[in-house]
UniProtKB/TrEMBL annotation:
<dbReference type="InterPro" id="IPR018110">
    <property type="entry name" value="Mandel_Rmase/mucon_lact_enz_CS"/>
</dbReference>
<dbReference type="InterPro" id="IPR013342">
    <property type="entry name" value="Mandelate_racemase_C"/>
</dbReference>
<dbReference type="InterPro" id="IPR046945">
    <property type="entry name" value="RHMD-like"/>
</dbReference>
<dbReference type="InterPro" id="IPR034610">
    <property type="entry name" value="L-fuconate_dehydratase"/>
</dbReference>
<keyword id="KW-0456">Lyase</keyword>
<feature type="domain" description="Mandelate racemase/muconate lactonizing enzyme C-terminal">
    <location>
        <begin position="199"/>
        <end position="295"/>
    </location>
</feature>
<dbReference type="Pfam" id="PF02746">
    <property type="entry name" value="MR_MLE_N"/>
</dbReference>
<protein>
    <recommendedName>
        <fullName>L-fuconate dehydratase</fullName>
        <ecNumber>4.2.1.68</ecNumber>
    </recommendedName>
</protein>
<dbReference type="InterPro" id="IPR036849">
    <property type="entry name" value="Enolase-like_C_sf"/>
</dbReference>
<dbReference type="Pfam" id="PF13378">
    <property type="entry name" value="MR_MLE_C"/>
</dbReference>
<dbReference type="InterPro" id="IPR013341">
    <property type="entry name" value="Mandelate_racemase_N_dom"/>
</dbReference>
<keyword id="KW-0460">Magnesium</keyword>
<keyword id="KW-0479">Metal-binding</keyword>
<dbReference type="InterPro" id="IPR029017">
    <property type="entry name" value="Enolase-like_N"/>
</dbReference>
<dbReference type="InterPro" id="IPR029065">
    <property type="entry name" value="Enolase_C-like"/>
</dbReference>
């Protein structure tokens, strides 16, 4: 047996506000950042687990402190039993009543738990010699459902429901894995659409996106309607009348305002409208969805837990579900989210970009294709060409699609030199 000897955290910030990369109507000057954690053990294999929570700057102070608060759950404990029962490990840490009180099961503490859970998955995948998506996709249906906490879900998704979904996908797993290796997983890009970019830069990046093989782009909207009409018109002139262009308001609008704004942009045929209002307003999303149909409503990058996703699906509030690799409590809770989407036959198009979100969430979509939904139809992963060079295994895009990672692990490990260069106030350690 080996023991966990340290939970190391770093406050890593990139000055993306200088170029307005990531700028939108709600977040005009983000500095893409990562509250980064390394789980170290005394095992002779030298494998450590790497993960992070994505923030946009100063929130890192709080997020790093939350991760540090979890050291007592791990440091000094034997590693192998934790890895052998990742479902139990998840439920134990999420169930710490005094930390759970801070949510419950949402917010900074919940995301910190996700970082620790994801770091343990990184170790488990590295030890298995497999990328995380492949490790998950080769588990039996029974092993997969053991990872999920079905509490609060059973009125719409039971363990038996999940087993039925997963068993139905077992035939064809090998063929889908082979198809994934051959052609990858479809992507779309938000790179042309940041709100702080000039029209000329938008047009240039839209052309480049189409030339690179992406089959959809996304524009940020919501600050000024006249500007949005002008920018959407320019994008349509570049991309043509039938090329899918989604829009993203980043929670900027009231419900009535969202309906009016999307109606005003309807002439440009948005592929979907994303985060039109508060991520917690389930009924507001449902009202918007009814009013703007057939334009689809998408949300999820700020959905704080599996219960919010359950309600969004129950209320027919979304036609596109957007999970995030680090917003909820890690891999385990996102498996629950994928199963919910499969139960309601709603496609999952994850949120990505930021710092390392592309590297992380691709594993979940690829697992979904092979072992859960069995489909790539109408599904794609967001891609933004920012900061990939800082990762040990950076995302690879081929003809607009994500090439499946083959390196063992969860894909969230940053290069030591990048951690050192962009650490904001030094490294913290809890041991």
């Amino acid at each position: 047996m080996s023991s966990i000897v340290a939970l190391e955290t770093s406050d890593i910030r990139f000055p993306t506000s200088l170029s307005l990369d990531g700028s939108d109507a709600m977040n005009p000057d983000p500095d893409y950042s990562a509250a980064y954690v390394i789980v170290r053990s005394d095992a002779g294999d030298g494998i450590s687990g790497h993960s992070f929570v994505f923030t946009i700057g100063r929130g890192n102070d709080v997020q790093v402190a939350a991760i540090d608060a979890l050291a007592g759950h791990l440091v000094g404990r034997e590693l192998e039993p934790l890895l052998a029962d990742m479902g139990g490990t998840f439920r134990e840490i999420v169930g710490d009543s005094q930390l759970r009180w801070l949510g419950p099961e949402k917010g900074v503490m919940h995301m910190a738990i996700g970082a620790v859970i994801n770091a343990l998955w990184d170790i488990k995948a590295k030890r298995a010699g497999l990328p995380l998506w492949q490790l998950l996709a080769r588990m039996s249906p029974e092993e997969i459902v053991d990872l999920v906490d079905f509490r609060y879900l059973t009125n719409v998704l039971t363990r038996e429901d999940a087993l039925e979904i997963l068993r139905a996908a077992v035939p064809g797993r090998a063929e889908r894995e082979a198809a994934l290796m051959e052609s990858g997983y479809p992507g779309y890009t938000t790179s042309p659409g940041w709100l702080g970019y000039s029209d000329e830069k938008l047009e240039r990046l839209a052309r480049e996106a189409m030339a690179a093989g992406f089959t959809q782009i996304k524009l940020k909207v919501g600050a000024d309607l006249d500007d949005d009409i002008r920018r959407f018109r320019r994008a349509r002139e570049v991309c043509g009348p039938d090329f899918p262009i989604a829009i993203d308001a980043n929670q900027r609008w009231e419900v009535s305002e969202a309906i009016e704004w999307v109606t005003a942009l309807a002439e440009f045929h948005p592929a979907w409208v994303e985060e039109p209002t508060s991520p917690d307003d389930v009924l507001g999303h449902a009202e918007i969805a009814r009013a703007v149909a057939p334009i689809r409503v998408a949300t999820g990058e700020h959905a704080q837990n599996r219960m919010i996703f359950k309600q969004l699906l129950q209320a027919n509030a979304i036609s596109v579900m957007q999970i995030d690799a680090v917003r909820v409590a890690g891999v385990n809770e996102n498996i629950a989210n994928l199963l919910l989407a499969a139960k309601f036959t709603v496609p999952v198009c994850p949120h990505a970009g930021g710092v390392g979100l592309c590297e992380a969430v691709q594993h979940l979509s690829m697992f979904d294709f092979v072992a859960v939904s069995g489909s790539r139809d109408g599904r794609m992963i967001e891609y933004v060409d920012h900061l990939h060079e800082h990762f040990v295994v950076p995302t690879e895009i081929r003809n607009g699609s994500y090439a499946p990672p083959v390196a063992p692990g969860a894909g969230m490990e940053m290069k030591p030199a990048s951690i050192a260069e962009f650490t904001w106030r030094g490294r913290h350690a809890a041991a």
